[in-house]
TrEMBL record:
Transmembrane annotation, as ranges: 41-62, 93-110, 160-179, 208-232, 238-259, 266-282, 354-374
Taxonomic superkingdom: Bacteria
Biased composition (Basic and acidic residues): 410-419
InterPro entries, A to Z: MFS (IPR011701), MFS_trans_sf (IPR036259)
Name this polypeptide is given: MFS transporter
Keywords recorded for this protein, A-Z: Membrane, Signal, Transmembrane, Transmembrane helix
Region (Disordered): 386-419
Keyword Disulfide bond: no
Signal peptide: 1-19
Manganese listed as a keyword: no
Taxonomic lineage: Bacteria, Bacillati, Actinomycetota, Actinomycetes, Streptosporangiales
Matching Pfam families: MFS_1
Amino acid sequence: MLAVPGMTPLLAISLLARAAITADAMALTMYVVVALDMSYAAAGAVVAALTAGVALGGPLLGRMIDRRGLRTVLSATVVPQLVFWLAVPVLPYVILLGVSFAAGLLMVPIQSVTRQAIAAMTTAGRRRAAFALESVVGELSYLVGPPVVILCAAKVSPGVVAWGVGTAIVVGGAGIALLNPPLRAEDEADGEAADRPRRRQWLGARMVAVLTMGFGVAMLLSGVDLAIVATLREAGQVSWAAVVVAVFGVTSIVGGLVYGALPRPMPTWLLLGLLGLVTIPAGLARDWPWLCVAVVGAGLLTAPTLSTVSDAVSRLAPAGVRGEATGLQSSAASAGFALGSPVVGAAIDASVPAGGFAAAGLAGLLAALTGYLLSRRSPRIVAGDHVARGAPGPRRLTTPGTAPAAIGPDVERGEPHRI
């Protein structure tokens, strides 16, 4: 996949920017708690405002990309990010709370742009491997970003750390603008992408199923992080949480690489269901060595599940609305991450730390069941269909050279096909 023209610089720039974006919440938390000497609740409010902005802004920015082009949107987001992160160290708390929402609303859409570019740069038969590699890049960003911010905050001021995070986001956005990757394949430029189909023609039950499962996997992962900390805190071993999270991340990378090399895909609902099932018994671990072992199964399934979500969205969305569709995927993931911690936290408070793993796993199972039922009840339509173009004609299972999105129970019959 790295031999595909433009793929290596795209993923490299994406890794830099996504590492910074995954660490932005930690940078704001460190600033509010350390520099402003306020509570973690106050820091959580700032992070919640930023997350809410990201969730609402994803589809809007994606729609702007579809209509105005990539560089226009990047220019409209890079400049506000530069201003925001430069101003963070001098803003009083009340103003920071408000502008954090605006900054989230105009967050540089690195993740959705990367997914659109991958869909445009690869053929149907190679797209699954490409999205598996993209999910590996996402896992690397989680392993690198937050720990670097924590380490730097201990050595320098939180304000300088905020500047560093903002600089990486801005450099990533400018790098993508200079690279200017294609967001539509050559055969889409004058055909399918020429007309923008109505939302009801592509945002049907199958797309809702994929977005629901993207929400579910994000909620599960957010809950697992909290359950790990709660379990080790009860055991008096909270300092080992970083080791457990690192094991989780490394096994996820291994799982993504293995899944991308497999000859046949697996449906998203099945991967998510298995992820939920193996998450629940992780609560039986009582100390950090056993918890490292317990999270291996969930780690191996994380990146494959994320990659199938991204793959399915790219196939179900016609080229003319692919930006909006990937924006909706990012919004679903942001909502899942925002909701996962409080739901799992409530389960932990009401029971024991093991209840956190159970709540996270059950959330994944519920999302998988919902996605399965929705995909069973809807006709299998893929991007490139007559319906996607808005033209009359019978609905077809596939178009030449395109495999169905792997979200239903029996669509893995043709050519092999995240958030």
